[in-house]
Amino acid sequence: MNFVAFRMLIGDRAKYIGLIFAVAFSTFLLQNQISIFAGIMKNTGHRVIDITDADVWVMDPQTRYFDENKALKDTDLTRVRGVPGVDYAVRLFKGNPVARTSTGRFATCVALGLDDATLAGAPRHMILGSWEALRHPHQIVIDKAGYLMLYPGEPLELGRELELNDQRVEIAGISDALPGFVSLPIIHARYSEALNFQGQQRLQLSFVLARAQAGLSPEELALRIQEATGLKARTTWQFAWDCVVYYLQNTGIPVNFGITIAVATLVGLVVTGQTFYLFTVENLKQFGALKAIGVTNLRLLGMILLQAVVVWFVGYGFGSALAATFFNITLKVIATRHITLLWQSAAGVGVFMLIVVLLASAAGLRRVLKLQPAEVFRS
């Protein structure tokens, strides 16, 4: 009977291909949009996650995410260092100067000024050069995406000069920084030099990075710093999530992706469900004939479920393969790197599509179980 069910399924090639296409298209669209949405949201916290030398970020109490901050007083660094449980605390400057090449090409950058003595927060994943070169004057490290933005189509090369607020600096390293929400070059420099890139202001301390002593959790240290200083203190992951939540609440990205995901869900429910239901109904004569020769309802149930699982398996396989191919191609594009097909998305969509196909088969099954063989022969 399993062979008969399979032959019934593929006998009508047009309907069979239509079923496979509906499942595959819905699978591809859902996996694609969910993974891209999650990837973009994850990028919003990458500037925080990229700094691995800190357990706790200390900032102004009104700061909501990384790109929006109010400068602290220099004395706040001393206050944080005085909190019990702090292993070390260093300053971090963040600015957005304009970098200009010798050919006149320019781009707004994210400049991170690191503590001169420790260089805490320096990029650890280097493609060319070394982050330790920052100890020398007028040296910077720039990320690969930023380098290609300023020098499009040119090979990676150290020693090139950039102009930042009339300050000439030399590229001493090229890092593999995680992509951010906005595609801006990421420049690392010493704190004392990064201040000059932006221009002098009365207060310039953007964040204080703190590390907890052994045996003390970052969450406990953050609470201690908040109580002792009145400043806002967040662990690295808490602050990264703050960035994600800010963009979710204050941009139209969730709505745009939500509409696409809703359409894909609707296509999965309506098109796939209706197509499979019509396929079962149009084969009522065959099912009636099988009942007339003594095939039981339980056996018919197994045949229809087998058809449903085959449609789901082939359609989901094609859809997942298309999604994997898409992300494999875009992974090599500098602007969309690190946006991958999430296994959570692939698994969740697989379960969803299986439920849709099974529900559609259940609707058709009801007609089959109530079918009287005599009705078929009368028609």
Tags for this model:
379 residues, alpha+beta, 2 domains, twelve-stranded mixed sheet, 53% helix, 16% strand, elongated, transmembrane helix, Putative ABC transport system permease protein
Account of the 3D structure:
It is a single chain. The protein is α+β, with helices and mostly antiparallel strands and 379 residues long. The chain folds into 2 domains: 1-44 and 252-370, no CATH class; 50-235, no CATH class. It is 53% helix and 16% strand. It contains 13 helices and 12 strands. It has helices at 2-11, 13-43, 46-49, 74-81, 144-150, 191-198, 218-229, 236-250, 253-282, 284-292, 297-330, 343-370, 373-378, and strands spanning 56-59, 86-95, 98-100, 106-108, 110-114, 126-129, 139-143, 161-164, 167-175, 186-190, 207-212, 232-235. Strands 1, 2, 3, 4, 5, 6, 7, 8, 9, 10, 11 and 12 form a 12-stranded mixed sheet that branches. A hairpin with a 2-residue loop joins strand 8 (161-164) and strand 9 (167-175). The longest helix is centred in the C-terminal third of the chain and has 34 residues, at 297-330. The radius of gyration is 30 Å and the shape is elongated. The mean pLDDT is 86.
Globally, the shape reads elongated
Give the total of domains.
2
Low-pLDDT regions: none
Total number of strands: 12
Give Rg in angstroms. 30 Å
Span between termini: 24 Å
Q: Approximately how much helix is present in the residues?
A: 40-55%
Order of helices and strands: HHHEHEEEEEEHEEEHEHEHHHHHH
Major beta sheet summary:
12 strands, mixed
Relative strand content: 15-25%
Number of H/I helices: 13
Determine the structural class based on helices, strands and strand pairing: alpha+beta
Average pLDDT taken over every residue: 86
